[in-house]
Amino acid sequence: MKNDKTIPRIAVGALALIMSGAASAEPVEVQWWHAMNGVNGERVEELAKKFNESNDQYKVVAVNKGNYDEVINSTIAAYRAKRPPHIVQIYERGFMTMLLSDAIVPVQDLMDKTGHKVDWSDFIKPVAGFYSYKGKLAAMPFNSSSPILFYNKDQFQKAGFDKPAETWGEFEKQLYVIKKSGAAECGTALATDYHWSLIENYSAINDQPYATQANGYNGLDTEFVYNKTLVVPQVARLKKWLDDGVLQIAGQGFSPEQLFTSGKCATYFASTAAHSGIERNSKIAWSATFMPWEEGRQPKNSTIGGAALWVIKGHKPEEEKAIAAFFDYLAKPETQLWWHKATGYVPLTNKAYEMAKSEGYYKESPTREIAIQQLNRGTPTDNSLGFHFGNFTQSMFAQREEVEALFAGKKDAQQAMDDAVKRGNEVLRQYERLNKGKY
Amino acid sequence: MVATTHEPGLKHAHFQTAGLPALLLLPQLLILLFFFFIPSIRALMQAFLLTDPFGASVHFVWLDNFTALFASDSYRNSIWVTIWFTLAQNVVTITVALVLAFATDRVVRFQSAYKGVILLPYAIAPVIAGVMWAFLFNPAVGPIAFFIKSLGIQWDPNRNGSDAMLLVVLAASWKHICYDYIFLVAGLLAVPRSLMEAAAVDGAGPIRRFFQIALPLLGPTLFFLTTMNFVYGFFETFAIIDAVTRGGPAGATNILVYKVYQDGFINLDLGSSAAQSVLLMTFALLLTLLQFKYVERKVNYSI
């Protein structure tokens, strides 16, 4: 008779225990949408896993949503459907779009609110400067890169050179010798993001104004002016190289990186993040160096590319705590050092950079330091801070079309850049009209 | 009661109440509602707005999106590109499909293998087909590009707009020939043998028989196929363009449907993209109406 009552009681008690246990052990989950594929995609998964193993309160679920364009589109769709993820990785070009979207929580506010003390002053300046608005970080810097010059050591030696020359003029002569002597079939492979390395960063390094209002940092009424700068002879030079077979376009169905790693082209201007792919795939003896600059100029810092992590607003307080804990983990020098080594992206804090230096990492991999040194070079001017343009993807796209018209011989360099600036300014004016008074 | 007092035929409903037919129509109507009418109406509304992608600021701008489009060189270029592309694709597809279909009868051995080979491209996903074409014709690595260049012909679809256009026309046609082929083979089978035989007895050779008997009798089929080819060229070639040229170089292959995608999903200019899709829909509608009004009259449906 006794048993009749005790068994259900025990069962209920056990059930309650299991349920309460489940409730307390179940970590708070946050969704992180990212755009990293290939080797770097594996690293992102690893990073989330490392964070999840480091604590039992919070869990980050990393979901690959395709490339950068697809991530921002998915984010917009999810936000409009009122089911947004917590963290999204958005390319640097989308900075203004995200900043004035009313859809985000500035990361510095989030960290303050959740009581995390982050030493923001330790963040590498060109990176923090890019993602800051009114002195506060709006997004968590994540994968930051800068373009560098990769080259084939054997082919340079065969043509009688130690390494690429420092200035564009001398470098151009080298490429022609390499091509003519047959050391390589082509001098350089045109990267798909050449607008970033060979036009935007070219302007920053050579201290050329790209647009008024400090390249958009000081106001939405910024106007492109690169049709009156060294950019015009720069794109004319690229056209000449193309005509002479010194420059090779990889085109659709093929990657320019393969033109370099297969030994067809002697050099490749690419993001420092190309390290992981080049290390894995190339059978050539390669090295890397700084981007060239124009003769007689004091080279300035280059600017960043890559992406940052944005926090979408409207999530529960405990989820915001989870996001903050993840960012806290991300900012740790150990995490940064691991990420830097694993991917080729630059470390985000000076502490991580110092750690890499003191453990002799750059003695074994000297090319990994180039981007950081280049980013930190000299004092940034208004022309080298970075680029803050609304709908920057759209004006960049117009510029690329005009460069293609130049390459096809339909326009000369001046005409192409005039038209690119005109189209770009229309994009800027539309953005200004839409966001008046918000910046 | 059941439709007995009137002349029999499909024109008259055989239902006594409206309930059952409505029920039977419902699934189709729901699909149309959710996948056509609601998106179309939303696109139409969006076309009059200037908005940021997240929808934080929305301005009603009347026809600004449309006037901006017609003032823009790249949009006008896109219209021309679309016209050339669909016309060329239509001519190539129908001509090749006609020749192949007419030859089917003449292939005595391995006829099923012959048909199989022709139908194969239809089974290949457009993106895969596009990547393959892009690769084969890539001047840096493609074997066909090497062959073309070895003949002394300049070839670079990554730089030269007309090369790129040729490439996407070929790729799009190659993918669609089999579709036209099936209809044309069926159409040719419907041509009475007696007519052909009589003509042969009268001394008409195969070419004359083709132009004077088969072709006129294929009229309705050809009319249907041109309409379908235009629809294909307008909308379904997106994946091929994306894989082969991405609308480049310098917009040389940027057909309207691809531009809608590019401006909407890459450039995040939703108002302009919506206005473009409204215009594209209007163009397609007008074209189909024109075809029915003027071309269909000349088509002889009876034998």
Number of domains of chain A: 2
Fraction in helix of chain A = 40-55%
Name the beta content range of chain B. under 5%
Mean pLDDT of chain A: 91
What is CATH's topology name of chain B?
Answer: MetI-like fold
Shape of chain A: globular
Number of helices of chain B: 13
Structural class computed from helices and strand pairing of chain B: mainly alpha
Average pLDDT value of chain B?
Answer: 87
The CATH class name of the largest domain in chain A reads Alpha Beta
Shape descriptor of chain B reads globular
Largest interface: A-B, 39 and 42 residues
Order of strands side by side in the largest beta sheet of chain B? 1-2
Summed up, what is this model?
The complex is a heterodimer of chains A (439) and B (303). Chain A is α/β, with parallel strands linked by helices and 439 residues long.
Question: Your description of this structure?
Answer:
The complex is a heterodimer of chains A (439) and B (303). By secondary structure, chain A is α/β, with parallel strands linked by helices. Chain A has two domains: 6-145 and 305-358, D-Maltodextrin-Binding Protein, domain 2; 147-302 and 377-435, Periplasmic binding protein-like II (D-Maltodextrin-Binding Protein, domain 2, 3-Layer(aba) Sandwich). Chain A is built from 20 helices and 13 strands. Mean pLDDT of chain A is 91; it is low at 1-7 and 16-23. Chain B has 13 helices and two strands; from the N terminus they run αββαααααααααααα. A two-stranded antiparallel ribbon of chain B has the order 1-2. In chain B, strand 1 and strand 2 form a beta hairpin. In chain B, helix 1 (19-46) crosses helix 13 (270-295), helix 3 packs across helix 10 and helix 12 packs antiparallel against helix 13. Chain B is globular and about 75 Å long. Chain B starts with 18 loop residues before the first helix and ends in an 8-residue tail after the last helix. The A-B interface holds A 69, 72-73, 76, 79-80, 97, 100-103, 242, 248-254, 259, 264, 391, 393-394, 397-398, 401-402, 404-405, 407-408, 410, 423, 430, 433-435, 438 and B 50-57, 59, 74, 131-135, 138-142, 156-161, 243-246, 248-252, 262-263, 265-269.
